Amino acid sequence: MQVEFPEDVVVDDAKMIQTRRDLFILVGVVSTDVAYFE
């Protein structure tokens, strides 16, 4: 997966890591809900 930003947007590593961590948590929660209800 490749993320493209407009050239005037600067994303620092810390922000990317934080965002990625939040995404993994969100995916984990959704996966847990799906497994729980099945």
**Low-confidence residue ranges:** none
Percent range of helical residues? 55-70%
The pLDDT mean sits at 75
Number of strands: 0
- Total domains, how many? 1
Helix and strand sequence? H
Kindly report how far apart the N and C termini lie: 29 Å
Rg result? 14 Å
In what range is the share of β-strand residues? under 5%
Q: What is the overall silhouette?
A: elongated
Organism: Brassica napus (Rape)
Protein name: (rape) hypothetical protein
Structural account:
This protein has one domain (1-38). The mean pLDDT is 75. It is elongated. With 38 residues, it is mainly alpha-helical. Helices cover 66% and strands 0% of the residues. This is (rape) hypothetical protein.
What would the keywords be for this entry?
38 residues; mainly alpha; 66% helix; (rape) hypothetical protein
Summarize the topology.
Elements lengths: L12 H25 L1
Produce a short descriptive summary.
The chain has 1 helix and no strands. With 38 residues, the protein is mainly alpha-helical.
